[in-house]
Specification:
The chain is α/β, with parallel strands linked by helices and 409 residues long. It is built from 15 helices and 14 strands. Helices cover 38% and strands 15% of the residues. Strand 13 and strand 14 form a beta hairpin. It binds ligand 4LM.
Amino acid sequence: MSNPKPSAPGFATRAIHHAYDPYAGEGALNPPLYLSSTYAFPTVEEGAARFAGEQPGFIYSRVGNPTTALLEARLANLEGGEAALVTASGMGATTSLLWTLLAPGDEVIADKTLYGCTFGFFNHGLAKFGVRITHIDLTDPENLARAMTANTKIVFFESPANPNMRLIDIAAIAELAHRGGARVVVDSTYCTPYLQQPLALGADFVVHSATKYLGGHGDLLAGAIVGPKEDIDHVRFRGVKDMTGAVLSSQDAFLILRGLKTLALRMHRHSENALGIARYLAAHPQVAVCHYPGLDDFPQRELAERQMKLPGGMLAFELKGGVEAGRRFMNALRLITRAVSLGDAETLAQHPASMTHSFYTQEEREAHLISEGLVRISAGLEDLDDLLADIAQALDATPKHSPGGDYCY
Ligand code: 4LM
């Protein structure tokens, strides 16, 4: 047998090893956790040179720390970007990036469906400061071509969108946005760089809530931005340093570095479990609709296969009995935990209309394609049979919906 051909290291290898040499320093297998807010300058002149950006070296942990710097190097590598900046939360990533890039008079075109707090930031934050926010249905790229104006600076979307799983064609949107002079920001939280690589498809920036799959264990809040080095430097030295202060603690950076080591493995298991749950729900007589990119009849199946390595760990569905049936179903769950957030080892169920997307008014939810009866599931890492047994018993405990609108027990 011939030796395997040397080639660029694969994703899992880079997620474990990139940018850290265990033979350097003390020889520790794991990178050191630097707990220091400030750094000593050998001389006044060297301190001044670091401040002026003329000499490398750490200054103060609001603008850099060796543990967070390692995480940034690793995330930039995994996303295929020039540079990364990690932040105190996913909201810290989006707010720091957009406060840096935008000025009054600029326009953001965003997809209709966004995570509730991102929608809140756009419409109650940016909009108060003279930025115009236009929501359109980006699942049809032609809508972007029609909507763009000379002031459109940013096109922002999630794919899959939280919570209704609509997919957006990143390459098509990037091409149209660039033609009109706008830059594209993709919130790729649901996918992680293992499932989707927005920069390779033409996006300018990727943002993440690293609270979710990147950390992977539900024990921290964090965010990340990946993009061109010049822009990331601006976000670091203006957006985060002076505007949001959304700095990630080095202890949380250390935990994310640990989480990344199993990211590829975990994403396979999340996807397998989500597919098993989605197939079960889609075939169940009490279920009206199940949205999951891995289902054969998912309306955007072709795009899912082209853009995503795996269909991922998130799904959403609606029971025939609507909101009330969904509430009863969720209250009957025993193993699956009623909780917001996603990407944890535990399978989580939540009701977007009253939880993560309750910042939209009911009319806004309707206009933004977020149905009141939707139940969202983040498939965890448990044994699929146990998850299906829990779903089965919870559906049994949910009154059946009769066509006349009444419940049958
Ligand atoms: C949730 N989501 O959906 P931080 N972008 C996306 C998200 O789903 C989230 C954020 C950004 C949920 C949190 C409770 C697509 C969050 C914001 O929570 O600030 O790290 O991320 O359940």
